[in-house]
Amino acid sequence: MLIQCTKKLLDELGVTPVSQIEEDPLFSWHANLLKVGRKKTVVLVNDRNLYAIVLHGLKAKDMKTIGKLIVQAIRETFEAECIKDEVIEQFLQHSPHIAFSKTKDRTSVARMNKACENVYYFGKLLDNDSINQVEMNLRINGLLAGVGKNDYIYPKEEKYKHLEELAGQPIFQSEAVELKVKLMLERREVWRKIVVPTNTTFPKLHRILQIVFHWKNRHLYDFYIYPINTDGKVIAINQDRPIVNLVCDEEAFHYQGDVPMKMDTGIKLSEYLPAKIVYNYDFGDSWQHTIEVVRVIENFDLNYPICIDGEGAAPPEDVGGEQGYKAFLLITSDKNHQDYEHMLEWGMRQGYREFDKEEINRSLRRV
Q1: Residue 69 CB: number of other CB atoms within 10 A?
Q2: Where are the alpha helices (DSSP H) in 7-65?
Q3: Do 355 and 313 form a contact (C-beta atoms < 8 A)?
Q4: Would you say 347 and 328 are in contact if contact means Cβ atoms under 8 Å apart?
Q5: Which of 199, 192, 208 is nearest to 267 (CA)?
Q6: Topology of 174-314+352-364 in CATH?
Q7: Residue ranges per structural domain of the chain
Q8: Where is the DUF6933 domain (predicted)?
Q9: CATH match of 2-167 with 3.40.50
Q10: If 246 and its partner were Cys, which of 53, 104, 200, 264 is the partner (CB 3.0–4.6 Å)?
Q11: What does the alpha-carbon distance between residue 294 and residue 273 come to, in Å, rounded to a whole number?
Q12: Quick check: helix, strand or coil at residue 64?
């Protein structure tokens, strides 16, 4: 495996670069050293498909074992994408020895720098307790990346194609769960059934729910996890207190009550299922969703979530809670109302639309 480093990174590693050698672009990476939040961060970008791997919080001792850390980061990130173990090993063993050289050309450096910009932009996703930044990797590899002449690719989808070519077989396999997610409204039925891999993290589950309910991801959220009792049945949420509150922002710890609180970063669904989950979004409008397991799917052959059923349009963003939604529906159902056109246009800008499974599933492929 060839790691083509900027001068800054080579100086930090203290290695003498090898002479430029030829390597299959699938096993070649360009790498740069950044300072993000005063912590040393290495960003690697694959030469063939622009797939990025981010290592964060590196210390001097870590630089001495950077090769092992890179391999571990690739393995963990591929595992998070539900790629089969044998495919991961085939990729890593195809080019097992790591060599460090100078960067190849300005085009490759420019593409790497774009990935570095994305790391800065999504800096809140960085996990200070882990060197390998799985959440960051998954997020930035789902973004469009330019490859010249107004042409763009999705790095993760390009990587999937290349791994299938290498392995000569389907590359995905995972355990998944079918979940029914219901928005708690007094007078309307709004729910979705989705299938998600059980290794899905809670931050990613949040992004999935934003898509299936057409929310705009403008507000904070949290999850409450409720236990199961001794006979395996989920305790009703009004009969017991949660076992943990998973939050998305450290500010939440200033308001901690009796329920133990954790940051949701890196925590997977599999760590708590089959417990009932309550998802709260927008603490102003206060949208509460219940999440229950319908069934477990042992051999799921996709690595992205799908929506299989649903009913009802979710309220538009910032409508003012359930009372505001009621007023919105009254106005938009009356073409003679003086605010009809304005409210209809406003609702569309806020993402309001009827349930459309096909549209949702197109978006879920990119999550």
Answers
A1: 18
A2: 7-13, 60-63
A3: yes
A4: yes
A5: 199
A6: 3.10.290
A7: 2-167, 174-314+352-364
A8: 2-158
A9: no
A10: 264
A11: 11
A12: coil
